[in-house]
Design brief:
heterotrimer, A mainly alpha (281), B mainly alpha (394), C alpha+beta (363), B: 394 residues, mainly alpha, MetI-like fold, 3 domains, two-stranded antiparallel ribbon, 19 helices, 71% helix, 2% strand, C: 363 residues, alpha+beta, Rossmann fold, OB fold (Dihydrolipoamide Acetyltransferase, E2P), 2 domains, six-stranded mixed beta sheet, five-stranded mixed β-barrel, 23% helix, elongated
Chain lengths: 281, 394, 363
């Protein structure tokens, strides 16, 4: 924090600044490097996970795509992920709209209750669901997994959509009414288009949460319901082969794809937002 | 009578509420129940239970009770159902399983009174403390699991006493969990500050790149990131390869399965959670404040300490709390890269659920963990201004 | 001939049952009129507008539009155009999309919609900007789109809630004239809310001055300015000198007031004041003549405390009648240029310019 914060920006950076920038760069590299390390490892022609790799080959990806177990795990992950996303996004969005519209006492309590899965340690949720699902016979089923993942993701959807509803300019709804739109028309033509970006973000987050989820799957899934993370975990514990690295790379690419989609949606939405106008009391 | 609008609102919330109630609240409650439920003996040894309930607890129970115990145990064993009872009692006091099994085997050879035969076999059968223990275990509730989860138990005269040295692991575990979480939180808070600050003052183009570098790990699964560290920290891994090739060390350093590895991997996983809220707060601080302070004669470090730092505190607190709450419940990362002395409480909750099946203690530990997290959230709610679930007002 | 379009009949509004925001409002608005609701914040003017628009429910009383009772008619069925203070343009639609919206709600076909949109854009001089998004427009342009949108579906009544508040001074004055022109062109009835009294005076046919939930005076701008009904209106509209004293003597039209320091002033009676009653004298600074004495009955020598230069005129702050805040205005004619602080100067005004009103606590 030097005088250059208040002097014109074109000054030569001070030593303080240089140190700051170096530290930040190192830390940012620290954040991303381990993720990048997995890429060359997945292309190793060797059988051990060592760098530098003896050579390059696609054999581990081939192994992944020809393996029954890995393909089943990927399939399961997508099925559970998509179902979770559909249910969590619809229930969460409806719930957010309900919380936005409702004027009843205990609203805060309901919101706290619905956010509870988010603040509960995942292990606690996992065993609670394990005990209960086993008791009703859903212990080793994809249904049980979908249920569990939905419960874990729904708070994110709820809070994201609710936040965007609360930052919604109420005058837009009044304007819409004054122009002749009944409440349903106003909802479809004005509210929905403007909250769609946050619904999308919620959906993406729900999918990512489900796809990456391991702890609940550890308890609830037996080999037929293994998801990709669960299969990876088994692989690490039992036999560490570079196929795991290739699985990891595929998961990373999917995460980055989701992230890119989300950022694109957010940027497009930001461009539509009016600059805040000066409000006089 | 509720307005139409409220009726609609309730209808919209209902399905979600139902889902959370049925799939989360109820299971959570059931788990809590499981931590105090004492169903093994009443279910598997019903007759013995009834007899013990009638017994006044003084002296020793009747011959009939001894016989009933042996008979029901044998029947349970034949149906492969004796395990839960034996585990239950053995958890209360180590050695009871072998004592009961020994008695069970020997009793088929008894000619006279079962009671005398058992006592002759093992004087423990005449120990009123043993029978007091069994009577306590006839349910329906027990303090056993919650007491054990904080290394306490009921002593001979029913008073609460500490458990034996070799059994007293849980308090140590909680302490270790907090210790690790605290260290990780501090490191994350300290590291996040410069990164968030730099991002908040850079021109838009650089900030976007920087934020992307923070978001990528944030969106990447914890398992993948931890796996990456697992691979990197191996003796044959890239770091060691680098160190050796640069002649900084003679031999590869053991980094995997150490506390260091746990700290490293957890900080890596949790750092984005500390950076993002802090960045958001810093971005909202108007440069005018610092300029005003400068115009009033405050030198750089003073401006930082008196103006900037306090203004960023809500962001620091929010990030730190988030990191702490998450690390307290961490399971995968210590399990993969840590050693046996680095496992946190969640590991043992999983252990008692899957491996050494004892759902009672698992549930009790989970309940305690949940309680602690709840207290943290309550503190955050009260102390940190602007800490609301996701920044949402109600 | 009276042709009322909107009638407020004993409209009362209270949000919590304890504090009343609007008290028994009676207001009749003539067709084609430009009526302004003027008042400070919290005076009830915006709430009254909101009730007319249908965004708030009156606690009691009725509102009729063209004879039709509006009380339980939802906002979207009232057919009233509204221009909001923050414009409330739909950010996800283009300008043309915004204008098309009300026409689509009315089920108007594509061809006619396009025609009307073009006409509306031309009316507010934004012809080529139809495809732009609101976020790409300046504040003034957004304001004009808001105006066009409220008029494109040809409502009988248009409400404007402080629409010019966010604009800078020059743009604001320009828009005031534009709105007035549009009003004259279309012949639509306008109800305008503002706290800016000069805006109200320039634009309106009639002004309703609100204070604490009641209309203090409903009159043309000239009447409000020249003949304020009470002390509040006098100080709210235009600049005003307010001198407190008691009625020493009176006749049918005029009275003689005695201020606290003994100064005696002749003024016109605005209220029926008894001798000895506490009264307030209201006098516009520009009515005060500075310099040589004339035939007026009120003539005093005052000391100049401060001179404030305004370019086209100068304001003088004088000590007179026991107060040092007496304001007079002069355009610097004839040898008054040597005036300085501390100088003594003669001020005078005719007894018709001062209005004596009943004393009420200054807000």
């Amino acid at each position: 924090m030097t005088a250059s914060t208040i002097l014109p920006a074109r000054q030569r950076p001070t030593t303080g600044r240089l140190i700051l920038y170096s530290v930040t760069s190192v830390l940012l590299v620290f954040l991303v490097a381990p993720i990048l390390v997995v890429f060359p490892l997945s292309l190793s022609s060797g059988e051990l996970l060592v760098l530098p790799t003896p050579g390059y080959s696609w054999r581990w990806y081939a192994d992944f795509f020809s393996s029954q177990r890995w393909l089943l795990a990927t399939y399961n992950s997508f099925v559970v992920g998509i179902l979770t996303t559909l249910i969590a996004t619809s229930l969460g969005t409806l719930g957010a709209i309900g919380l936005y519209l409702g004027r009843f006492r205990g609203k805060a309590f309901v919101l706290a209750l619905l956010s509870l899965p988010m603040v509960t340690p995942v292990i606690v949720t996992a065993i609670a669901l394990y005990f209960s699902l086993s008791a009703v016979g859903l212990g080793s089923t994809l249904t049980g997994l979908v249920l569990a993942h939905t419960v874990l993701s729904v708070p994110y959807v709820l809070l994201t959509v609710l936040a965007s509803l609360q930052s919604f300019d109420p005058n837009l709804l009044r304007a819409s009414a004054s122009l002749g739109a009944n409440p349903i028309q106003s909802f479809y033509r004005v509210v929905l288009p403007l909250i769609t970006p946050s619904v999308a973000t919620g959906a993406l987050f729900a999918f990512a949460t489900s796809f990456d989820e391991l702890i609940v799957a550890l308890f609830i899934a037996s080999p037929d319901q293994f998801t990709l993370p669960r299969q990876m975990y088994a692989g690490i514990r039992e036999f560490l082969s570079p196929t795991i690295a290739s699985a990891a790379v595929l998961v990373i690419l999917l995460s980055v794809l989701l992230l890119m989609i989300n950022e694109t949606i957010r940027n497009r939405a930001a461009r539509h937002t009016l600059p805040p106008t000066h409000r006089t009391p | 009578m509720m307005s139409r609008r409220n009726l609609l609102a309730v209808a919209l919330i209902a399905p979600l509420l139902l889902l959370v109630l049925v799939s989360f609240i109820v299971p959570l409650g059931a788990t809590l129940y499981r931590a105090v439920d004492d169903a093994e003996i009443p279910t598997i040894l019903p007759q013995t239970t009834a007899l013990l309930k009638q017994w006044d607890g003084k002296g020793l129970p009747s011959e009939q009770t001894y016989q009933s115990l042996i008979a029901e145990l044998r029947e349970a064993q034949e149906q492969q159902k004796a395990g839960p009872v034996l585990n239950r009692l053995n958890f209360e006091e180590t050695g009871l399983r072998s004592m009961l099994l020994q008695g069970l085997r020997a009793s088929s050879r008894f000619t006279g009174s079962t009671k005398e035969g058992l006592i002759a076999l093992n004087p423990r059968w005449a120990d009123p403390h043993f029978w007091g223990l069994v009577k306590r275990s006839t349910g329906p509730w027990t303090h056993l699991y919650f007491l054990r989860s904080v290394d306490l138990k009921l002593g001979p005269d029913g008073a609460v006493v500490p458990t034996a040295e070799e059994e007293a692991v849980f308090v140590k575990l909680f302490v270790r969990t907090f210790e690790i979480s605290l260290v990780v939180t501090l490191i994350c808070a300290v590291l996040a500050y410069p990164v968030a600050y730099t991002l908040s003052i850079l021109p838009q183009v650089w900030t976007n790149i920087g934020i992307m570098l923070v978001l990528i790990p944030f969106w990447t699964s914890i398992l993948v990131r931890t796996t990456a560290w697992f691979i990197i920290l191996q003796r044959e891994g890239p770091i060691n390869a680098l160190l050796v090739s640069l002649h900084l060390v003679d031999q590869p350093v053991t980094m995997i399965f150490t506390r260091f590895a746990v700290y490293l991997a957890m900080v890596h996983v949790l750092l984005p959670f500390a950076i993002l809220p802090l960045y958001s707060v810093m971005k909202g601080i108007k440069p005018d404040y610092m300029r005003a302070a400068a115009s009033l004669g405050a030198p750089g470090w003073r401006r930082f300490l008196r103006i900037y730092l306090p203004l960023t505190m809500p962001g620091v607190a929010a990030g730190a709390l988030m990191v702490f709450m998450l690390s307290v419940g961490f399971y995968i990362t210590p399990a993969l890269v840590g050693g046996s002395g680095d496992q946190m409480i969640s590991y043992f909750i999983a252990f008692f659920t899957n491996t050494s099946v004892n759902w009672g203690i698992a549930a009790a530990l989970a309940a305690l963990l949940m309680g602690m997290t709840g207290i943290l959230v309550a503190i955050a709610w009260l102390l940190v201004p602007g800490f609301r679930a996701g920044g949402v007002r109600v | 001939m009276s042709d009322p379009i909107v009638v407020f009949d004993q409209i009362t509004k209270s949000y919590d049952g304890i504090n009343t925001v609007v008290h028994g409002l009676d207001l009749t608005i003539e067709r084609g009129e430009f009526v302004t609701l003027l008042g400070p914040s919290g005076s009830g003017k915006t709430t009254s507008l909101m009730m007319l628009a249908g965004f708030e429910e009156p606690t009691s009383g009725t509102i009729t539009l063209d004879g039709r009772l509006l009380n339980h008619v939802p906002a979207h069925q009232r057919g009233i155009g509204v221009v909001f203070q923050n414009y409330a343009l739909f950010p996800h639609m283009s300008v043309a999309g915004n204008l098309s919206f009300p026409l689509e709600m009315q089920g108007i076909g594509r061809a006619e919609r396009d025609q009307r949109i073009t006409a509306a854009l031309d009316m507010v001089k934004l012809g080529p900007l139809g495809e732009r998004r609101p976020s790409e427009l300046s504040g003034g342009q957004q304001q004009r789109v808001a105006l066009a949108r409220a008029l494109v579906f040809q409502p009988k009544l248009v409400l404007m809630d402080e629409p010019l508040g966010a604009l800078d001074k020059q743009l604001r004055e320009h828009m005031q004239i534009e709105i007035k022109h549009i009003h004259e062109q279309l012949g639509v009835t306008v109800v305008y809310v503002t706290h800016d009294q000069s805006e109200a005076l320039t634009m309106s046919d009639r002004v309703a001055v609100f204070n604490q939930g009641r209309i203090q005076q409903l009159a043309s701008p000239a009447t409000l300015y020249e003949e304020p009904a009470n002390a509040f209106v006098a100080s709210f509209i235009g600049e005003n000198n307010r001198l407190v004293g008691t009625v020493a003597s009176r006749d049918a039209t005029y009275c003689r007031m005695m201020l606290e320091d003994g100064t005696q002033i002749e003024a016109r009676l605005a209220d029926d004041l008894a001798v000895g009653a506490k009264a307030v004298l209201s006098l516009r600074p520009e009515r005060v003549m500075v310099g040589a004495s004339g035939p007026e009955t009120n003539q005093f020598e005052a000391r100049i405390e401060e001179l404030i230069y305004f370019g086209d005129h100068t304001k003088l702050r004088l000590s007179l009648g026991g107060s040092s805040g007496f304001m007079a205005r002069t355009s610097f004619k004839d040898g008054l240029r040597d005036l300085q602080r501390g100088s003594l100067v003669m001020v005078s005004w005719s007894r018709d310019c001062g209005r004596a009103m009943a004393f009420s606590e200054q807000e």
